[in-house]
Design a protein that fits this description.
The protein contains 8 helices and 11 strands. By secondary structure, the chain is an alpha/beta fold. The C terminus is likely disordered.
């Protein structure tokens, strides 16, 4: 059987893929699709992707949220990129036939974009930094995990795609009160966030905008997530080895 292994940084991202059975390093959907929640960042993602391969994944996918770099992207847009880049020389391609199948399926109900996805080891917080990265890299969105997953897929010669739902727009600044209060698992330490907001209440409008964007993105993730594991839209079975 050909199993897809899906890497999510956060449990809140994984929950939109469907009900899972827990056990071992990876959870499983009813059809055998493997899911690993790694925590944020490239190192955690790399370890999680390797755990998926060791558990029998015959193809890898990076699923979750991303921030917009291109001003044309809005919260809830879906990016299924042709390429993942570090912005400084390292660029990896996604698997074309798998990407096209899924893009076509999702575009019937959602706005789906192609292009370049930038992966960075740290959160891109300000609109000024987003604009600079858009101009210098050509990437239209940014995340923290996809390049690491792509590297494992290339190393193992497995198909790979990334599917990312936009949450913050290019002109949105991420409030320091939120980013500094969020741990690697995406958990927000409420009292630390409230302390930051009380010290700098000018961040509150940005926080409200971000919460609206997040709600829109989650609605799209809930609708689109199950398609990522749907074999009707997956890679052709002949392109991958059989999982043990």
């Amino acid at each position: 059987m050909n199993r897809v292994g899906i890497l999510c940084a956060l449990q809140t991202e994984a929950q939109h893929l469907g009900p899972v059975t827990l056990g071992g390093p990876c959870a499983r959907l009813a059809d055998g699709t493997l899911i690993h929640v790694s925590g944020m960042g490239p190192d955690a993602a790399s370890q999680g992707a390797r755990a998926l391969v060791e558990s029998g994944a015959a193809a890898l996918a990076s699923w979750g949220l991303a921030g917009a770099l291109a001003p044309t992207l809005a919260a809830g847009d879906i990016l299924i990129p042709e390429f993942i880049t570090a912005g400084e020389g390292t660029t990896r391609a996604t698997t074309a036939d798998w990407r096209v199948r899924l893009s076509h399926a999702l575009s019937e109900q959602h706005r789906v974009m192609g292009g370049m996805l930038l992966s960075r080891p740290a959160v891109v917080r300000t609109a000024v930094e987003k604009t600079a990265l858009f101009r210098t890299t050509g990437a239209i969105a940014v995340d923290m995990e996809s390049l690491a997953v792509a590297a494992v897929a290339d190393d193992q010669r497995l198909p790979f795609i990334a599917v990312r739902v936009i949450v913050d727009r290019a002109d949105d600044a991420l409030p320091v009160a939120v980013t500094s209060a969020t741990d690697a698992q995406g958990r927000v330490r409420i009292w630390r966030m409230l302390t930051g907001l009380m010290a700098e209440p000018a961040q509150i409008p940005s926080l409200l905008r971000l919460s609206w964007r997040y709600r829109a993105a989650r609605q799209v993730m809930a609708a689109a997530g199950p398609s990522l594991a749907n074999r009707q839209y997956a890679f052709p079975p002949s392109t991958v080895r059989a999982a043990s």
